[in-house]
Amino acid sequence: QETVDRLLRLHFRDGRTRVNGDAQLLMAEMLKVFVREAAARAARQAHAEDLEKVDVEHVEKVLPQLLLDF
Amino acid sequence: QRLKAAVHYTVGCLCEEVAEERDVQFSKQTIAAITEITFRQ
Amino acid sequence: ENWSLSSEEFEIWDRLYRIKESDGIKEPILPQVQFETLENLEEISKHKEEATHELSLSEWRIWQSRPFPTSVVDHSDRCYHFISVMEMIELMRHEQGDCRYELEIQPHLRIEDVN
User: Which residues of C touch A29 (CB under 8 A)?
Assistant: First the structure.
């Protein structure tokens, strides 16, 4: 949660802007869902190619649609 | 850089959860790629 | 500080995830996108060309004409719209002679609508 708070602050123009606990939790959860979805879709693509190792190529194949889904 | 390392570590842990569930392995570069995408997202 | 790695976490990160020169792996980066109409909020971070691998959003464009399987997050409407556009482009690429899309919408053309 603190890491996410720090991430959000990177983009604030006004140093006094704060993020309350709920917003931090929600953002942390959203990013966790995003990471797991990216990993799962890339893993599924590797499986479709009968591979056990998930490589960058598999991430690149699912990336356009993944970014449009968030 | 310390923040990116923290995100990178967290992404690595999440990828390992998915790897276990789906019986795959993620290459180091793949985990770094997902970290970069998440960081930019 | 709570937001950064503890020493134990740092050790794990350094051992398992950090990309080192000795790994012979290039650091993946997402290319910077310049939109003429949008102010670019991100600072352009300079990367040593040789040490990085630019993640491509276009290398697999031909694959984007069909929905990829999802896990817990379904495809969004705009993603389906993107997929249908890519599918249309794919069909057009294989067409011979007249453009089917043109033939399809030609009957609906009224010049006065254009002015």
Answer: none
